[in-house]
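Q: What does the assembled structure look like for these inputs?
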Amino acid sequence: MKSRRLVAAALAAAASLLFTACSSGGDSADGPVTLKFQSLSDQPAAIAATNKIVDDWNKAHPDIKVEVVQAGWDGVYDKLITQFNAGSAPDIIHYEAAGVVPFAKDGYLADLTPYLSEQKKTDIPKGVLDSVTVDNQVIAYPTELQSYVVFANRALLQKAGVTIPTGDTMTWDQLREIARATTRDGAYGLGWGLSSPTAAMVALAPGFGGKYFDGTGTDAKISVGQGEMALPQLVDAMAHQDNSILPVTLTQSGSNALAPFYAGQTAMTIQGSFQAANIAKDAPAGFDWVVLPPLAGPAGPAQAANPQTLSVNKDSAHVEQAAQFIEFFTNTENLAALNEADALIPATTSAREALTTKLGAQNGWKEILSSGQYLTSAPYLFVDKYAQWKDTVATPAYQKFLAKQIDANGLSKELTDGWNSINR
Amino acid sequence: MTLAADTRAPAPAPAPRKRRQGTMARSRRREAIALVMPSLIPILVLSVAPLVMGLALAFTDARLVRNPDYDFTGIDNFTKLAGNSFFWDSLRIGLIWTVGVTVLQLAASMGLALLLNSGLKLQGLTRVLALIPWAMPPVVVAIMWQMIYSANGGPLNAFLGSVGLPDDTNWLGDFSTALPAVIVVGVWVGMPQTTVTLLAGLQQIPQDLHEAAAVDGAGAWRRFTAVTWPSLRPIVTSITSLNFIWNFNSFSLVYVLTEGGPGGKTMVPVLFIYLEAFKNRNIGYAAAMGLVLVIIVVLLLAVYLRSQFRDDRAERGR
Amino acid sequence: MRVLLRPAQYLALAAYILFLGFPLLWLISASVKSSGELNSLTVSLLPQQWHWDNYSDALDRQGLVHSAGNSLVVALVSTALVIVIALPASYVLARLKGKIRAAGVGWILVSQVFPVVLVILPLFLILRTIGLADSLAGLTLVHTTYTLPFALWMLQGYVSAIPVDLEEAGAMDGAGRWTVLRRIVFPLLMPGIVATAMFSFVSSWNEFFFALVLLQSPENYTLPITLNMFIGGEGKVSLGPLAAGAVLAAIPSIVFFTILRRRLTSGLMAGAVKG
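A:
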């Protein structure tokens, strides 16, 4: 009896605790303001660059102090969703567009449109700004971008008698030709780490006119047609007809496809542009590499943009000050320094130009930075069930297609049917 | 709720014993409650309460949004779930994974525990070495095994190549090898706890029971079945049930190794629920999935445990 | 027969140790390789050049040592709490007969089955209301709570493996119940307690998900969180420093095992039950 009463009391206490409303109370004092900035930086140079920007701000604004809270990329999504749902999210949130748009739709992010200066607005390419605009509200400032570029082993290309393309862009057909020509002497033309194929397929589809989705939110419809199937079919042709792609790379991650590239087993490799820094560091001494011009499909050299972003928590007590800080963080000088440290492409045109002037002479930077101008917003960012479709339908379907377990028709059917069944 | 010693105490006369037993039993009961209470309170507040809240959501259409506005929807989530073929596919994979890992873990650990109990040389050292997998956090385990399984830069393929076997299998990337490869890692991770548990159980068996059996002329195998196994049985039941549950619920290992691929071959149900709850933010639907999983696992365990308890009772009656 | 058995046993043991220990060996090997070598196609146990920088890099980053300290405190305290709380309760549970025991035991199992993902949000809210979110004390409490069912389950298994006859024999010899428990049951239970303590320490030391979600301030981070920060965006892994950090992180666990391994033997049962 006593034990049962005790149990009941414990339950009641727990229940009453739960029903107490708990919102994160911000201090509304007029005194000095402290902002929590949750920053995700994984390598020392970027952390140093971020801390310098924060220090500069704190010195210039003693009344608005920014405090950096380091968190890791891996697992940040779980952290953010718990923080938001429990009302304990930081003031300034660092993440990426694809991840942050759903939070915006759920109502967690402040509308930054009134704080976005005219100058900044014109400085950000429209395609990139669109990728952080939800329902006509700007919910984040874009900071850093990456694009898919082709790294090539100059020595192997020259040995095969290939002229290195030097124009503003190059076509996928050109890539295919070069791959064919350099598949010889036991080496392959191309190594492409496609163990997670969906990101690459969706990001590169705009070059072929592919959109994958029509509409936004819960009303989005999938459309898998010519534009969407062109790239998978090209990869399939290169891999299984031309035999110019090193087969093992199709089931490896991008980083793992670098080892064959360094060893000369592949003449080229398609990678995220940030790998330039790693290649500079890890390639064997005397390895002569170049970045080929940005790839263009029939519809142009466009790629889907997924910038890293800085957003403000809607429940923050100091939205305006937080936005001021972000404006400062994304000024030309700071953004250029950060992107240099991270080997990424700045989101503002002025920073991009500044970096081109500074680093253009270094291997690969010019081509990579110029590829940044072709990044544009893509529908998948605004589609509600994209993450689930990607992980449970699209990735397995592409993997099966590349392993020749299903053909092109099978692929497009699986992508579409899978989407429909997720959305029933 | 009486303790065994009570009922078997010899008694001079029935009447006085009953009165004494009454008060003794009540104080025993209070004592028992006092012993159990400290474990109940944290469990109630930090385990039962969240669980009940989580389960309750299975009957709503709740989503993880800033201003949650959800309604009670009865069994709608469950009817939707019945038609969700991805979920049931993942359940099949989950059961293969779980049974595979649990059974292999038990067999391998039993062998190792017996060896570690055999008085071989360097016993202290080998007992510590056997615990190595325990010393690694999950993120490290996954990365370590990815390195080992690497198709062109890993020691496994290098070794196979050196003895003339094919050396270019992408263990985690090939459709037919991915699930077995991940199961091997699951066994590796789980061996220390099972081995330690079984070893402790083996240690509890008195040495003279073994000696008596040996004197009676029993060989190694007979000694195992007649002396070791009966004593070990409750412990085997405990650790197997727990392993079953943990393996079923383990998703971070699979997720980091293969992300559920290739081709969905390693998409276990808890990963599926994670995607539904956190990525799609459909916490209500995900809770319904969780509830279904709980019911299935509990049913399976009930079948297993009942067979064990029945054998237990049969043994005691012998 | 015996002559053949021993070498076979040693061989089997060697095979096991190889299976269990090789990955760590490979990890140590990775921790002294440069990133150039790690990203090349060469496969060898010994590095081409010993690259000790990975260790200094790992130690410099993100407060590895401090978070290891946090992990140590949380693991030790939660283990102590678990043993102290679970021991008496599991004794009661094991000696019970009938339906109540089945219900208790059944509940313990069920509570382990529910996916943590669905429990994490209500749990975070509850902790915040008590004021223990983002604190090592809160994390310790959570680790204790979630290890308790396992400890109860395991210990009651060990207790039920100890024949009741022993306790009765002690009682018949005139010893009081507490003496019986202390002198007879407890020593026999020692291997089981040690096994449970090891498990509790390790699951707390390696635990990642709760720590990730419940801890906000970097000074509270535990070791797995810090190690995880070596993995950057787009799945970039700084393999060398991560391997070095992982090797360092494995050391306390291995030390703990070495200290406890002797307690895993019992041998006190010999002669306890005479016909």
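The two ends of chain C are 31 Å apart (CA to CA).
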